[in-house]
Inverse folding.
């Protein structure tokens, strides 16, 4: 590890922390329906959307059941629409490369992936999808799935903040305001910043020419920047190119890399400050931020250290992996020179801490320990920042669990923000916290124990197991990053995808995991909020346990880690741990 | 709220948001980009003698020709329209063999021009595949080694080649962010210019 590397990481964390109260305060005002500086610009458009939808947000507050039902119906219709687009791609416009329609199982997986804010990619973007499918299908879902997460979070926070009022807000208003006041303006700004660095943004088709050495090269082009901006901001992560943000047309410079990494954590991190303001206890928001930040920094340090040390494959081959004058050293296999080790591992940690999943390096080629960090980040249930909206509502479930455990230890009725946490809430919390880990283990076991899992693998033995575990951890937790050797779609380089075939088992099991992993915790969080909303907060007394103190931060971090460790240690031993303990090649 | 009403509103929402976010947003961004940053938006293409020979940001294979600086190894043969990772794991025997081959090839190519060049001197970027498969850069250490060969083959002074390397090195943003790298295509173009 180099001082230069840590300086970059330090600057990143400082800028992120500085942005948290700014954007968090802004988002709190947006969801409390107050005026913000964009109101004069956006309000006419907002009114127009309400008129189209026939909504009068002032009149129509929803309780948690109604809010949850609308969320499901809304997501289901978008699901059907995206599936239709992918299946009829060949008949749609803006398809300069004449790509065929998606196979049913791959389209199901991709649709589930984008509707659930996962953005897992079994398909190869630039060799499978037309500009129309990318723009009108996937990019729309990048916004919508993010907005759904943010809306549900706003509703959940209102439940924590309310004083015995059952209504959690209006879904239509929350979604519309998420899109118009937060996602869209920042995306436009971000997209233009990225184009200035060299990210492509055109409707022209691919461009072929002879290189300097007289070889053929073809540049795949397209409306990249508009898609990349929202894929980072909305913790989506589905790349415009198959190799995602490692490709120079998605991420050309050290500066674009910095902007994109900030975008990945921006909204999930700011949500902590949004929470603090909306419940009227800013210190509580900071406590949550610090807990998340501590786990993030731990992950960065481990991953950076492991990758800088190099891999067994390098050492056996006799490669010198120390950093020296003019070379980064370390495990640069599957990494770009312009990002080196520090920015690659920072990104790997950040993108899996948030449920983003875009990559600027190839995670499959990370060392055992370096690759275990992204895996562990996902196994903590995507609550170390996590997805937009979903990260914080997931973390709030852990907060209630920590409060409950603390309450048991000191023999007092657990309380959070003055509201008693009782049997009903704890049951719902456990559903929200445990369903996803169980799903990961079940799906991984099913894949490795039957013959159906093997066709997806690209590496043998422990790495093959890690690929499977990573795939289902990623999909069930709605992250979308991959040990990309694992596949559900094999695709030779041929016109119109002739000769490609899908692995139905991987597509279906992955798709189902994503849907359960998204909607069960979402409904559990809404139900908890609904149940808390009905309670009248008790005044703070001498006996109240403080939930914004350093002690509580430690307790919260410990709760998150213990749940993850108890669930996943045996599985981790079989993959990453074996690999980092041995210099053996397989 | 009755289910039917939710369905009807969702259907309208699909249309409204798809038009706004799937059409208006990307087209507006495309329009502004094409006005403000037309070259970058179209892929930063580089012309030489009136024909396009590459893109500034996309690396190329220089086919081992001794008069050119060579790019990093690539899993995709520098394909810019079908991209994928190498995806071999850290303990993969095949990968280790690949590294050993790359290392031997590098020493064989550069050794005759760099007396005493050993395995320990070979920088990691020279023997590992990049993530994108089209990494436009090599490390400064890698360029220092290759400079001797290029200077000898082209009959240029080593100092001149080193100057060109320095001119075509993309530094860190604000001196801090990212890693410095030598843009191989631009460097080779500059060398060809030099020869005229």
């Amino acid at each position: 590890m180099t001082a230069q590397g840590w300086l970059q990481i330090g600057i990143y964390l400082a800028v992120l922390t500085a942005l948290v109260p700014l954007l968090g305060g802004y988002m709190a005002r947006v969801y409390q329906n107050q005026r913000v500086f964009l109101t004069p610009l956006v309000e006419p458009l907002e009114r127009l959307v309400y008129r189209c939808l026939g909504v009068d947000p002032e009149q129509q507050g929803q309780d948690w059941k109604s809010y949850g039902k609308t969320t499901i119906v809304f997501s289901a219709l978008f699901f059907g629409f995206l599936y239709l687009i992918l299946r009829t791609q060949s008949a749609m416009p803006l398809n300069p490369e004449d790509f065929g329609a998606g196979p049913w199982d791959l389209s199901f997986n991709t649709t589930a992936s984008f509707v659930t804010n996962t953005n897992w990619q079994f398909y190869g973007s630039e060799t499978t999808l037309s500009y129309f499918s990318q723009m009108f299908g996937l990019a729309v879902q990048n916004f919508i799935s993010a907005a759904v997460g943010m809306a549900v979070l706003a509703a959940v926070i209102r439940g924590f903040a309310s004083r015995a009022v059952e209504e959690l807000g209006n879904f239509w208003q929350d979604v519309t305001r998420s899109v118009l006041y937060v996602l869209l303006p920042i995306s436009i700004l971000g997209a233009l910043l990225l184009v200035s660095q060299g990210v492509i943004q055109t409707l022209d088709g691919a461009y072929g020419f002879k290189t300097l050495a007289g070889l053929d090269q073809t540049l795949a082009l397209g409306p990249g920047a508009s898609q990349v901006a929202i894929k980072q901001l909305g913790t989506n992560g589905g790349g415009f190119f198959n190799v995602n943000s490692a490709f120079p047309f998605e991420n050309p410079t050290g500066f674009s890399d910095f902007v994109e990494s900030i975008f990945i954590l921006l909204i999930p991190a700011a949500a902590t400050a949004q929470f603090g303001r909306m419940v009227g206890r800013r210190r509580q928001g900071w406590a949550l931020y610090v807990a998340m930040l501590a786990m993030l920094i731990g992950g960065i340090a481990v991953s950076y250290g492991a990758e800088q040390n190099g891999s067994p494959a390098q050492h056996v081959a006799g490669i010198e992996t120390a950093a020296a004058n003019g070379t980064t050293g370390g495990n640069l296999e599957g990494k770009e020179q312009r990002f080196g080790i520090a920015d690659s591992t920072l990104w790997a940690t950040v993108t899996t801490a948030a449920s983003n999943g875009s990559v600027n390096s190839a995670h499959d080629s990370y060392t055992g320990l370096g690759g275990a960090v992204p895996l562990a980040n996902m196994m903590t249930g995507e609550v170390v920042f996590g997805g937009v909206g979903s990260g914080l509502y997931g973390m709030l479930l852990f907060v209630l669990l920590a409060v409950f455990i603390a309450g048991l230890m000191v023999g007092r009725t657990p309380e959070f923000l003055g509201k008693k946490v009782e049997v009903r809430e704890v049951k719902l919390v456990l559903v929200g916290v445990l369903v996803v880990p169980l799903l990961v283990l079940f799906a991984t076991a099913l894949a490795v124990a039957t013959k159906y899992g093997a066709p997806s693998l690209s590496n043998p033995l422990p790495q093959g197991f890690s690929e499977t575990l990573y795939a289902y951890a990623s999909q069930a937790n709605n992250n979308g990053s991959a040990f990309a050797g694992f596949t559900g779609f094999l695709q030779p380089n041929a016109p119109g995808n002739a000769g490609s075939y899908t692995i139905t088992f991987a597509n279906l099991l992955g798709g189902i995991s994503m849907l359960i992993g998204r909607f069960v915790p979402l409904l559990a969080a809404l139900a908890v909020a609904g149940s808390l909303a009905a309670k009248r907060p008790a005044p703070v007394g001498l006996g109240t346990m403080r939930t914004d103190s350093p002690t509580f931060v430690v307790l919260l971090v410990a709760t998150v880690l213990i749940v993850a460790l108890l669930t996943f240690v045996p599985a981790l031993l079989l993959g990453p741990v074996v690999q980092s303990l041995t210099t053996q090649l397989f | 709220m009755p289910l039917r009403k939710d369905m009807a509103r969702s259907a309208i929402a699909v249309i409204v948001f798809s038009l706004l976010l799937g059409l208006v947003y990307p087209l507006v961004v495309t329009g502004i980009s094409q006005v403000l940053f037309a070259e970058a938006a179209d892929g930063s293409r580089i012309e030489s003698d009136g024909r396009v020979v590459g893109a500034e940001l996309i690396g190329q294979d220089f086919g081992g020709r001794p008069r050119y600086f060579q790019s990093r190894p690539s899993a995709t043969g520098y394909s810019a329209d079908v991209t994928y990772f190498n995806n071999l794991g850290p303990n993969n025997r095949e990968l280790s063999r690949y590294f050993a081959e790359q290392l031997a090839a590098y020493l064989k190519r550069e050794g005759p021009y760099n007396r005493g060049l050993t395995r320990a001197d070979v920088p990691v970027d020279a023997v590992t595949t990049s993530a994108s498969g089209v990494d436009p850069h090599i490390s400064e250490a890698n360029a220092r080694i290759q400079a001797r060969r290029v200077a000898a083959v082209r009959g240029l002074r080593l100092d001149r080649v080193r100057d060109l390397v320095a001119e075509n090195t993309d530094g860190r943003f604000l001196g801090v962010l990212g890693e410095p790298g030598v843009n191989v295509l631009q460097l080779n173009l500059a060398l060809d210019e030099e020869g005229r």
In short: The radius of gyration of chain A is 23 Å.
